[in-house]
Design a protein that fits this description.
Chains A, B: One of its GO terms (molecular function) is FAD binding. The structure is a homodimer of 459-residue chains. Chain A has 459 residues and is an alpha+beta fold. Chain A has four domains: 87 residues, 2-Layer Sandwich (Uridine Diphospho-n-acetylenolpyruvylglucosamine Reductase, domain 2); 118 residues, Uridine Diphospho-n-acetylenolpyruvylglucosamine Reductase, domain 3, CATH 3.30.465.10; 119 residues, Alpha-Beta Plaits, CATH 3.30.70.3450; 104 residues, Alpha-Beta Plaits (2-Layer Sandwich), CATH 3.30.70. Chain A is built from 17 helices and 18 strands. Chain A has a seven-stranded antiparallel beta sheet with strand order 15-12-14-13-17-18-16, with helices on both faces. In chain A, strands 5-6-10-8-9 form a five-stranded antiparallel beta sheet. In chain A, 57% of the residues are buried. Chains A and B meet through strand 9, helix 7, helix 8 and helix 17 of A and strand 9, helix 7, helix 8 and helix 17 of B.
């Protein structure tokens, strides 16, 4: 055994450290599509913050690269290990420590999955509202990527739902930030700096998340439109009306056909309407009473008609659930039908029509294709890119990201940069901001051990 | 003229630079109660981000301390200048640059006041929901302190309503962070790091703020309680019910008496009820239709009765407005009746009863008194402290802040640390966090020019 192996094993116990060939292949990657799997040299499964601190202290001393892993369902490669590095899996730190109904928060360890958290909160009539679609996702992963999802249009993304952290600095100190408090104006907001930093600044070992009261009644309205611009014009109109939908998604006709086909959806839309429309808007509504919900559904239907929808279908419970689940599985559908890469660019929602038209034109011009769906209320565009040639594909991605940034957007709205999108980011971002962020990184991680190759180039 | 005067005058124009005795006394302070006014050596009124960059570059080169000032209505002394330093007033950068109805954002310069922004958004049926009470406050000041206010219980604080910034680094670079986008998972969230940093990291020269649709119908319910613990128990019950009040305030009987007296309120509460109750809960409700509002008001009344309220009064429009305005002026009332300092500590709302009881006991034991009101939904306790002896008062404040932090809270929920609360903070905060924040500060401001004495000790 090498000296590092002995040291790490002393910290987490020999049973919870694996090395080399003993590390199962599942740990070599997350769900990002383009990068080859990479085995880490060490896999540690700590049980406490103190063990994490021990691992990071040892790694800092010996300049061992460290990658954190929640459930491994990330889509940008932030959890793909580094050759020769240490992978810290939070699978043993998976306790719901507290459901606090007075403060309406949960305190959980990072390895808790969304399914587990939903089960723990249900009896209290409370819910954690970050819903990236993949329910095996961990809360720690949500923190790392600043996860979003369909409900963000009403409830915000992870950033808005994470109130506090216990986190371990790469230098081994264990700090607490924020807490069971919704607001604080006391020095710098370290919580918000760590959320979304993709394991490059500090590792969360405890997370305080906001819970919302469960709303009893919900409905889903599906509206086909002949023209994509009309879909986009409908979005601000619905939001301005104060209807406060908790889902506001568009799905283009190519993607809808894929979802219907792979997920066997029965949406009850006549063929002639389906064939004549280019995109769909999905509006999820919820109400404290069934009367209010019915009223809002009716109002939404009327609004959609005014806004040019070909029709508006109120889906019954089963069909609605299936459509939303199918939408959540859009990534798997894209993967199944051979997508070569995926994009989750965010732009101001006013820029979505221009952005989407241009992105599709770029893809066609490059000899490929791009189709997708997205969080229309948030300007968060999910595109599956079909283009086999990696050189051409990189050029296409460059074009698309560059346009998004010119339009006032950013490369990722919710997946994070990871190892896959970092190279594009480094090319396109303002050098003054990059230099500042490098100094911030340095202030947390002087040895540069945390997730090299993510946000910054690996040395 | 000194060399620095010439240099600053070249940047902003001689008409927009004042020095020494020419600087009006209003610029020597903000509204913080305890610190003596301090004249700056220079007062510059830049008109553009480039001028701000020029000022900061020159100040960095010559190690001149720089303090930013919005409207000067801060309550912690973050805008009080440093002797020999430069005060940058944003009063000339006061344009509303854009009201964007599709993205529901406004883009404004930092000197725009809340009154001006409200006037600019009104015709579009949109509102900026940060409402710290003082409508002469500037958006730039909101950014600096992460301002809160009564509506935060529903709409969040400045942090949740600032989507992007143009900001000038002390090293002179002008950067843009975030944008007209509600979510982003692309490297570190510099917006959220700068919001609440009280002018110690970078100066905002443009702010993108979220706007919400105006809600037509609103009502205010006032409920007296015999027992303070009942008030606190009512808060989570109301929130869990999903009523989503936009105001949820408690006012203790001492403070209510002060408000009624100084603001000549007519609330229609019989003397015997007033005399028998120790605190009031104010519940502000809004609804998309008058029918829904009436329903919610009724439900709230019922809930309050179940929760032990002595009664529940639906205030008529005039009385409600007066009460809310009086509550907004609580600081001025406290000042008028001779408060020696004020506190805006935040604790988990479950800890409010213990915290308040202990804080009042500490004050009594020290020979003084503490009374107040606060944002019950947020755990944000506003106390006026009456104790003349500055040494005893400091000891009392130490005790109170120390308890708040032990209870999982923080020194300030919305005012910021400023020059007044920084010494307490430095004594009570975890040294590992302080060291990390000092390194972050250094990564923005290597020359240490921005607001020395705020968040960190002045050299």
């Amino acid at each position: 055994m090498s000296g590092m192996t002995v040291r790490f094993a002393q910290i987490v116990g020999a049973d919870h450290l694996q090395t080399g060939a003993a590390i199962a292949e599942d740990y070599w990657h997350d769900e990002e599509l383009t990068q080859p799997p990479q085995a880490p040299a060490y896999l540690a499964k700590p049980a406490t913050a103190e063990e994490v601190a021990g691992l990071l202290t040892a790694a800092s001393q010996h300049k061992v690269a460290v990658t954190a892993r929640g459930s491994g369902c990330g889509l940008s490669g932030a959890a793909r290990p580094v050759a020769g590095g240490l992978l810290i899996s939070f699978e043993r730190m998976n306790s719901v420590l507290e459901i606090d109904t007075v403060n309406q928060v949960a305190v959980v360890q990072p390895g808790v999955t969304l399914t587990e958290l939903a089960a723990a909160t249900e009896e209290f009539g409370l819910r954690y509202m970050v819903y990236p679609g993949e329910l095996s996702a961990s809360v720690g992963g949500n923190v790392g990527t600043n996860a979003g999802g369909m409900r963000a249009v009403k409830y915000g993304v992870a950033r808005h739902n994470v109130l506090g952290l216990q986190a371990v600095l790469p230098t081994g100190e264990i700090i607490r930030t924020g807490g069971k408090i919704a607001k604080v104006s006391t020095a710098y907001d370290l919580t918000q700096l760590i959320v979304g930093s993709e394991g490059t600044l500090a590792l969360a070992t405890e997370v305080v998340v906001k819970l919302h009261p469960r709303v009893e009644h919900s409905a889903t309205v599906l509206a086909p439109f002949a023209d994509f611009d009309q879909v986009m014009a409908a979005v601000p109109a619905i939001l301005a009306d104060g209807l406060a939908p908790y889902i506001l998604e568009y799905i283009d006709n190519v993607t809808m056909a894929g979802l219907v086909h792979t997920q066997h959806l029965e949406l009850g839309i006549p063929d002639q309407i389906r064939d004549s429309c280019t995109a769909y808007l999905v509006v999820g509504l919820e109400g404290r009473t069934s009367g209010r919900l019915d009223e809002d559904v009716e109002r939404t239907g009327g609004l959609l008609a005014e806004l040019g929808a070909v029709d508006a279908y109120v889906l019954d419970g089963g069909a609605a659930r299936k459509l939303v689940q199918a939408r959540e599985k859009a990534f798997w559908t894209a993967k199944a039908i051979g997508a070569d890469d995926i994009i989750d660019t965010v732009v101001p929602r006013s820029a979505m029509p221009n952005f989407l038209t241009a992105a599709r034109d770029f893809a066609t011009a490059a000899g490929g294709a791009a189709a997708g769906c997205g969080h229309a209320g948030d300007g968060n565009v999910h595109l599956a890119v079909f283009l086999k040639d990696p050189v051409k594909r990189k050029r296409l991605m460059d074009e698309i990201f560059s346009l998004a940034m010119e339009l006032g957007g950013a490369i990722s709205g919710e997946h994070g940069l990871g190892r896959a999108k970092t190279p594009y980011y480094l090319k396109l971002e303002d050098p003054a901001k990059l230099a500042l962020m490098r100094r911030i990184k340095q202030s947390f991680d002087p040895a540069g051990i945390l997730n090299p190759g993510v946000v910054f180039a690996a040395d």
